[in-house]
Amino acid sequence: MDKSAQLFVLFGLLMLGVFLAVILAMFVLLVRPWMRAFMSGAPISLFDVVGMRLRGNPVTLLIDTYLMLKWKQIPATIAEVERCYMENRNRVTTSDELVELVARQQGEVA
C-alpha cells in the first residue's frame, strides 16, 4: 500500500469517526428527551424537541413539566408549557414552579 492510499484510508476513518460523533450527539440532545416523553405516556413530536433546542429553552425542564401535568391530568400541550416558560423565563427555576404557572393559566389547581 502506498502513501496516498494510506492517507485516503486514514481520512476515511477520520470522517467516519466524526460522523459517528455527530450521530451520538444528535441522539443525546434530541432523541433521548423525545424517547423519555414517549415512554412516559406523553408523546411529543421530535420537531417540538428540535424547536425547543433552537429557541434555547431547557428541554429537560419543559418535558418534566409536561409529564407532571399529564400525571396530574391537567390538559396542557407542550406548546403551552413552552409558552408559559418563555413568558416567565426569569422567575422559573424548577418544574414544580412551572407546573403551578401552567395550571394557573389553565384554570386548574396544581
SSE diagram, text form:
Elements: H1 3-39, H2 46-55, H3 59-71, H4 78-87, H5 95-106
Helix pairs in contact: 1-2, 3-4, 3-5, 4-5
Verbal overview:
With 110 residues, this protein is an all-alpha fold. 75% of the residues lie in helices and 0% in strands. The chain is built from 5 helices and no strands. Helix 3 packs across helix 4 and helix 4 (78-87) packs across helix 5. It is elongated and about 75 Å long.
How is this structure best summarized?
This protein has 110 residues and is an all-alpha fold. The protein contains 5 helices and no strands.
The count of strands amounts to 0
Radius of gyration from CA coordinates = 20 Å
Q: How large a portion of the residues is in β-strands, by DSSP E?
A: under 5%
How do the helices and strands follow one another from N- to C-terminus?
Answer: HHHHH
Mean pLDDT: 91
Shape: elongated
Number of distinct helices? 5
Distance between the termini: 70 Å
Poorly predicted sequence stretches spanning 5 or more consecutive residues: none
List keywords for this structure.
mainly alpha, 5 helices, 0% strand, elongated
